[in-house]
Amino acid sequence: MALQLPRHRAHRVLVHRDVPVPMPDGVTLLADRYVPVGADRPPTVLIRSPYGRAGVVGWMYGRMFAWHGFHVVIQSCRGGFGSGGLLDPLGDEREDGLATVMWMRAQSWYGGSFAMHGPSYLGYAQWAIAAEAPDLRAMATQVTASCFRDAAYVGGSFALESTLVWTTLTAGMEGRLGGAAATFLAPRRTRRAVRSGLSGRPLSELDLVSAGRPLPFFRDLIAHHADPSSAYWRKRDFSASVGEVTAEVTMTGGWYDVFLPWQLKDYKAMRAAGRQPHLTIGPWYHADLRLGRVASAGALAWFRAHLLGDPSGLRTSPVRLYVTGADEWRDYPDWPVPGTRTERWHLQPGGALSTDNPAPSGPDRFRYDPRHPTPVLGGPVLIGNSTPRDNRRLESRRDVLVYTSPVLAADTDLIGEVSADLYIRTSTEHADVVVRVCDVHPNGTSMNVCEGVRRLTPAELPDPDGVRRIRVDLWPIAHRFRRGHRIRVHVAGGAYPRISRNPGTGDPLGPGAALVCCDHEVLHDPARPSAILLPRAVRS
After folding, report:
1. Distance between CA atoms of residues 344 and 432, nearest Å
2. Measured distance CA(153)–CA(151) in Å, rounded
3. Can you spell out the DSSP letters for 382-406?
4. Which run of H or of E encompasses 329?
5. CA distance 369 to 504
6. How many Å is the Cα radius of gyration of the chain?
């Protein structure tokens, strides 16, 4: 999808740096204003960021939107890059965002309406105020969601790699080397830290290795893991108000992004409320530079349509998806895509996978050892390349079950949500179940397509035979399994360091002295037909 920035009369841009914005509690936040010369009180684009205001943020957002005639305010969130107060990630964005809007309304240059723009945390800052700002007319969100809790504890497990790399990154962005160096160093330091976790260092101390000091937000995430209804997360969760947002919203996501399932949940919440957001999902991961140009061009067209009355840059269909495997863009009227049907592909004896009902058979078994947790190859991470990788090395492990379909006689398009319906027996009450779908090419390479995890607890009672029927939600997909390829499913007990290892004891910190191996049994017989549920698409 080659999107070009619309050509309109260019404005000369003036920049006012370090503009003070007072908060009700006496703290002052700093902002940069980008002013399009000759535009009379134009609409404003507000961008609130914890990553600073200079460099790429200033050029890609500030100058670009102002050049096209918008007044732009880029503000540093509380506790960073000159803004006062203490850094409390996710905790102050509603109050500070609404106070900033009140400040804008009092300025002589404010034209009475504004838009918001930005990816990841910048998108979360949009949702934090969206339902309470009636003069917010348009939003352009990318690779983000209205609540980050479920991405931090995906499937009930702890998303160790992404949470540690983000807290390490933000801790180093204002250091001597600056943001670019922090972005490069944070993944390396995180990898070193998670390796130390395998040598007995408690999970709660991995920040000492990655950042050299305690990171309060990382420790808060660990401390508030158990209770999703806690005051901590209620303050940081804006998902309940998504349906109340009246601004026109466009969403850009990636099939390999860590926030994709919850971004699509926000889309469906808006649709349920009668709204019609636009949705674009490409073959991108969270930090993918390719996404930036597409998102900026789409945001500019969106803002011109909904703040300047120029819809010429908008596409007709509200949903545009890139179908991996087919390598093509397709337009649809909605998500989930109309005309799909759910197919059950059953796990079979002997490592087979098919739509046939399973034959009578005994369970498949593997042992998960938290001292040597099952690793992961590819899949969504916050910082780093998340595009698919060959998983054959992982499939050769004794702690990974593999089920493979026959060679496909025709192209098979799967577009929608993916889940697994499994019958599991475990030797410990606390265990993780990881499920992954791979595309096996004719040459044998096995490329991961999507995955998911479910953390089991004693609250999920087994039947009299000790079997628990569980649902594992995987990442949504739009993928073509080509003729001659095969569909493959993994079942494992871990995906380290994507998720923290499960110690088998119920202690999320998992100290090295208390690690218990877990024997897993996966049943696949006529009475307990474990299956992967795939969304088969029928092209019109």
Report:
1. 22
2. 5
3. SSS--S--B-HHHHTSTTEEEEEPP
4. strand 328-332
5. 9
6. 24
What's the pTM value of the predicted model, to 2 decimals?
A: 0.96
- Bridge partners (DSSP) of residue 365 are 521
Distance CA 56, CA 289 (A): 11
CA distance 118 to 61: 8
Q: Which amino acid is at 539?
A: R
Letter string b/e over residues 167-184, b meaning 16 or more CB atoms within 10 A of that residue's CB: bbbbbbbeeeeebeebbe
Among residues 520, 517, 495, 503, the alpha carbon closest in space to that of 375 is found at: 495
Residue 460 and residue 451: Cα distance in Å, rounded?
22
Rounded to 5 degrees, φ, ψ at 301 are: -65, -40
Residue with tokens 């594992």: 472
Cα–Cα distance measured from residue 144 to residue 253, given in angstroms and rounded to the nearest whole number: 8
CA 219 – CA 207 distance, rounded (Å): 8
Hey, which bits of 348-485 come out as E strands?
Answer: 353-354, 364-368, 400-404, 412-416, 419-426, 431-440, 446-456, 468-473, 477-481
pLDDT in tens, 488-539: 999 999 999 999 999 999 876 655 558 999 999 999 999 999 999 999 998 6
